[in-house]
Amino acid sequence: MANSSHKLALRRRPRRLRATEAIRRLIEEHVLNVSDLVAPIFCKESGPQEEIESMPGVFRHNPADAVRLALDLYEAGVPGVALFPCIPEEKKDAKGSAALDPAGLIPRVVREIKARGAGLLVIADVALDPYTDHGHDGVWNAETGEIENDPTVFVLCEMARILGEAGVDFVAPSDMMDGRIAAIRVSLDAAELERVGILAYAVKFASAFYGPFRDAIGSRRGKGYLDKRSYQLNPANLREGLLEAQLDEEEGADILMVKPAGPYLDVISNVRARTLLPVAAYQVSGEYAQIIAAAGKGWLDLEAAYRESLLAIKRAGADLIFTYFAPLFAGIKL
Ligand code: PBG
Q1: Is there an atom of ligand 1 within 6 Å of 244 CB?
Q2: What are phi and psi for residue 199, nearest 5 degrees?
Q3: CA 124, CA 127: separation in Å to the nearest integer?
Q4: Is 213 in the pocket of ligand 1 (CB under 6 A)?
Q5: Domains of the chain (ranges, CATH numbers)
């Protein structure tokens, strides 16, 4: 039994603020809302939905199903979707030519979503990796083995214009080429697409956590890890990442994104502190896969773990979060 001799003369007892559910709710600093989330959607040309092996609970959808899912997400409160294509191998080539087809998979899905007139925000990636047979985000010079910066930017400008004409609200360059934000802005404006925003993958690291995504779009090459270190950032470098964010802001980006999210919370909070623009974070495929796999083994509580992972990203300073957990959070059955 405690008696007075066990009492400490404490002036500060922080636990008073954690004693009841009511006080805990009142002093809560951050809340995760469905309106913070962007749902990535993988699209394919046709056929029934296919589950992505390394991302249980995430599927590739044919255009009609992708449109329906996008509209269902919007109904359930998710304000935005980000579309990614998985195209057949035979449509891929070294230059990623299929990215410039105005009748291609993504422009088609965008047009169909927009034809329904919903207020949903539609974001499309601008990068060549879903379309190249080597899986790189840019034009690959077979002689030097280099991913060529300026020729890639020219293609990305075209791609952004085509996506803008199809009706996207934001293009999201995820390629990490130099100077692409300014060039894409000029290209959009020249086509009278001033309304189209640029969500820049400004601080994108060469991360091992993209592995399952590459399965999803069919760009994983063999068992080895596709080396994108000549354009994506070294995970060891914070300052270099902040410089990239600053350059993308100067070049005219509307939103700055940090990617991956969970392992890079320090980067998110540093970008947040330095810009007045909205900051986005992408909780990538490998972050999703880790939680799902551990929960599947009964080692983690799925609900608690995924919500905590997203809340931490928000606390670090992200205004919006791309996450494969968006349908689950919004209560959508796939
Ligand atoms: C490609 C792109 C990638 C992701 C989004 N756009 C992969 C990569 O850079 O290799 C990753 C998303 C994820 O892992 O969930 N431009």
Answers
A1: no
A2: -100, 105
A3: 10
A4: yes
A5: 31-330 (3.20.20.70)
3-state SS assignment for residue 331? coil
| Sequence-distant (≥ 6) Cβ neighbours of residue 287 within 8 angstroms | 209, 260, 261, 262, 263, 309
Helix 149-166 and helix 180-190: axis angle, to 10°? 40
> Tens of pLDDT along 202-257?
999 999 999 999 888 888 665 556 899 999 999 999 999 999 999 999 999 999 99
Q: Please give the Cα distance from 235 to 91 (Å, whole number).
A: 33
Give me the mean pLDDT over the 270-276 stretch: 98
CA of 40 to the centre of ligand 1 (A): 11
136-190 pLDDT, tens per residue? 999 999 899 899 999 999 999 999 999 999 999 999 999 999 999 999 999 999 9
- The whole-chain average pLDDT of the chain stands at 95
Q: Which residue has the tokens 């974070």?
A: 281
95 catalytic, yes or no? Answer: no
pTM of the entire predicted model = 0.96
C-alpha span between 280 and 256 (Å, rounded) = 6
Q: How far is the CA of 52 from the centre of ligand 1 (A)?
A: 15
Q: Which of 44, 92, 95, 204 is catalytic?
A: 204
- The pLDDT, as a whole number, for residue 298 is 98
Buried b or exposed e, range 299-318, using 16+ CB within 10 angstroms: ebebeebbeebbebbbebbb
Closest protein CA for atom 14 of ligand 1: 210
Helix (H, G, I), strand (E, B) or coil at 25: helix
Write 273-278 long-range contacts (CB < 8 A, 24+). 273/317, 274/242, 274/245, 274/246, 275/245, 275/246, 275/249, 277/249, 277/253, 278/254, 278/319, 278/320
What distance in angstroms lies between residue 269's CA and the mean position of ligand 1's atoms? 21
- Residue located nearest, by CA, to atom 6 of ligand 1: 174
Characterize 127-148 residue by residue with b for buried, 16 or more Cβ atoms within 10 angstroms of its Cβ, and e for exposed: bbbbbbbbbbbbbbeeeeeebe
